[in-house]
Design brief:
Number of strands: 8
Number of helices: 6
Largest sheet: 8 strands, antiparallel
Strand order of the largest sheet: 2-3-4-5-1-6-7-8
């Protein structure tokens, strides 16, 4: 996962995180995954071997080509967007690490398993404008993801307290669209 934002180059130590030095960078590790702040505007996260490979490519001389396919997928994000991220494996990480549903519960891991790549953007400069885009392995996976998102929005709307009608505007402002595998 690559994320663009405003990051502290020397983040405060966090309990339960181990520090792993890799070249010029420090990876903050929890289990098999971690994150690294590359500079004040760029961070990377993922499973340790993938993160180390990304850092190796980042530190290599010459131009950086490994991230090109990821960056191409966020072509519609405006450069001035303050927060955005792109990933080709984060959904698989979620699918493997979310608790499995027992009985009649929803098994969200099945929904995330079909996602191949994602990107998100958020801008709070004049309200909240955000987007999440996923590309799935099949059209059916995209339909399942769309239906799950619409269901969660519906549940959120139904669970809005009567004394908080302003939250209905939030739920009503969310749209879900699906086209093919997107």
């Amino acid at each position: 996962l690559l994320a663009r934002g405003n990051f502290s180059v020397k983040p405060e130590p966090t309990a339960n995180l181990k520090l792993l030095r890799h070249g010029d960078y420090t990876i903050h590790v929890l289990g098999q995954s971690g994150f690294c702040i590359l500079d004040s505007t760029l961070a990377a996260a993922g499973q340790i071997p993938a993160l180390e490979a990304a850092l190796d490519e980042w530190m290599a001389n010459g131009s950086h080509h490994a991230a090109a396919p990821l960056l191409k997928s966020v072509g519609s994000v405006k450069p001035e967007t303050p927060l955005w991220g792109v990933s080709t494996g984060f959904a698989q990480f979620l699918a493997q690490n979310l608790p499995r549903a027992g009985g009649g519960g929803i098994d969200f891991s099945l929904i995330f398993k079909g996602i191949q790549s994602t990107w998100f953007s958020a801008d709070v400069s004049s309200g909240l404008v955000a987007g999440i885009h996923c590309t799935t392995a099949t059209d059916k996976d995209a339909m399942n993801l769309r239906d799950a998102a619409k269901g969660l929005i519906g549940l959120g709307r139904l669970n809005t307290p009567e004394n908080r009608p302003e939250l209905l505007k939030l739920w009503d402002g969310i749209t879900v669209e699906q086209e093919g595998r997107s």
